[in-house]
Design goal:
Length: 485
């Protein structure tokens, strides 16, 4: 068995046994078609099913759901090996976005080493463990979850290898996001305090199948990106635009109905991002036009964004969601608009100052927080409500460099893929990037990526944004008109 990789950083070129040659014809040159084995088909199916089930299982935050999620990752590994056995070579992606994730795994393993001295008088020692991580059990759980997410991410890069599979995955996310938004809206009207009309929650406000309404908003930010991005990029046929607009509208209304300030701010940022990028960006067919067309296109995108935001507001009002808007306004006008986050962030900064290099350990924030809390010291906070600060506290400067490198590579590669001549591929790249951008904005206020379903969909969109030319349809050649005598 041989390992086959391509010269491109984000693609896999199959060995000869994995290809079948189509003979050339006068109208069509010879091309290579990728041969899909049965394990490959099942692996792709597992990815699609995992996106759906991880959200329906309360966002996959409980141990039983995490167990099933990890089982799915193990299944993909087995199918991956079977696919390699059938083809005679192991397909591996060289997408550089995998390196920061691998680096995070290495960082977590280093944090489990017994390299810290434990003293009873030590200001930073808890006296419970001599590992660099102050909570090695939580660090191990995070490593398992991160490894599983890496498997799904790497598998998406390998098995989404044709234009058809790209279209199927995009449609799966859009349709499921639309149905999930309808479910969330229905449940919010009929049983706002229960999940699935059965489970009563006392310590959090649920929405849809998610225990936390902010995490549902984060999930909607990711799913709404695809229909909105394809619309703004001009990659949707005229007869289908109203359908895409309706799908995006329902998702947007569901997001606003959560009354999540971070979610609403991120949605506006996502729309503005699409306005700027698609207004300035020109497709291959538009590059010969005058520059004045760019200003006109930007004005058109701004008008579309204004109509969309107004439509979302009216939709919320018509559905009786004034309470969501009022709750959003009231929370801003309170004595503490941050709802305690300012104190959380101040304590987190103290933790970062005390452990600047490799942090306190992945997942160990809840243990270390009580030692630096300037209030009672008995209140345990599991998350910092700011993913950037928590990356610094959990992983230190090393973790921050890994996270920053992932973001930089994501934007660089996605913008590069958006230069495709295939309109749909270009639209998917920009749409996926806009969804990731929205979540990155939301991460300033919440910890939506700590929910497994959101982290999975975020990585899937990152993969869709950076897939190479294998998922592009060949450009159609225009026939030259000849003058007839």
């Amino acid at each position: 068995m041989t390992t086959s990789v391509s010269s491109e950083e984000t693609s896999v070129v199959l060995a000869e046994p994995a290809r079948s040659v189509v003979q050339a014809t006068p109208r069509q040159p010879s091309v290579y078609r990728i041969r899909h084995t049965l394990p490959s088909r099942f692996a792709f199916l597992v990815i699609c099913v995992a996106i759906v089930l991880s959200a329906l299982a309360y966002g996959t935050v409980h141990y039983w759901a995490l167990g099933l999620f990890n089982l799915g990752g193990l299944t993909i590994l087995v199918l991956w090996v079977l696919d390699a056995w059938r083809l005679g070579n192991l397909r591996v992606s060289r997408n550089l976005l995998q390196l920061p994730l691998l680096g995070a795994l290495v960082l977590g393993l280093i944090q489990l080493l017994p390299l810290r001295e434990v003293t009873s008088a030590g200001g930073t020692a808890l006296g419970l463990t001599n590992t660099l991580s102050f909570d090695p059990n939580s660090t191990r759980l995070v490593l398992v979850q991160l490894a599983t997410l890496l498997i799904y991410f790497a598998a998406t890069l390998v098995f989404v290898d044709t234009p058809h599979r790209l279209q199927v995955l995009v449609r799966t996310i859009m349709i499921f996001g639309f149905l999930l938004a309808l479910f969330g809206l229905t449940q919010s009207f009929t049983s706002p305090t229960k999940v699935y009309w059965m489970r009563e929650l006392n310590q959090s406000t649920a929405f849809g199948p998610f225990i936390n309404r902010h995490h549902f908003a984060g999930y909607m930010e990711l799913t709404i990106a695809l229909p909105l991005g394809l619309l703004f990029a001009g990659a949707v046929d005229k007869e289908k635009r109203i359908i895409f607009l309706f799908i995006a509208g329902i998702m947007g209304v569901a997001l606003v109905m959560t009354a999540s300030r971070g979610g609403i701010i991120s949605l506006v940022a996502e729309i503005l991002f699409l306005v700027i990028v698609t207004g300035i960006w020109r497709s291959h067919s538009e590059r010969r036009r005058r520059r004045s067309g760019r200003v006109k296109r930007l004005a058109g995108r701004l008008g579309m964004a204004g109509v969309l935001l107004f439509g979302l507001f009216m939709g919320v009002v018509l559905l009786g969601g004034e309470f969501s808007i009022n709750r959003f306004i009231d929370s801003v006008n309170t004595d503490d608009p941050t709802t305690g986050r300012a104190h959380f962030w101040a304590v987190t900064l103290d933790i970062i100052k005390a452990h600047p290099y490799v942090g306190v350990g992945l997942g160990a924030f809840g243990v270390i927080y009580t030692r630096y809390d300037t209030r009672s010291g008995l209140y345990r906070l599991e998350q910092a409500h700011n993913d950037y600060l928590q990356v610094l506290s959990d992983g230190g400067i090393v973790g921050a460099v890994l996270a920053l490198s992932f973001v930089v590579l994501l934007f660089y590669k996605a913008i590069s893929r958006a230069k495709s001549r295939d309109d749909f591929r270009r639209g998917v790249a920009l749409a996926s990037l806009s969804g990731c951008f929205a979540v990155l904005v939301h991460s300033f206020f919440d910890f939506t990526l700590h929910t497994t379903s959101n982290a999975l969909l975020f990585l899937v969109l990152a993969a869709l944004a950076t897939l190479n030319g294998r998922v592009e349809n060949a450009p159609r050649k225009r026939r030259r008109k000849t003058n007839q005598l």
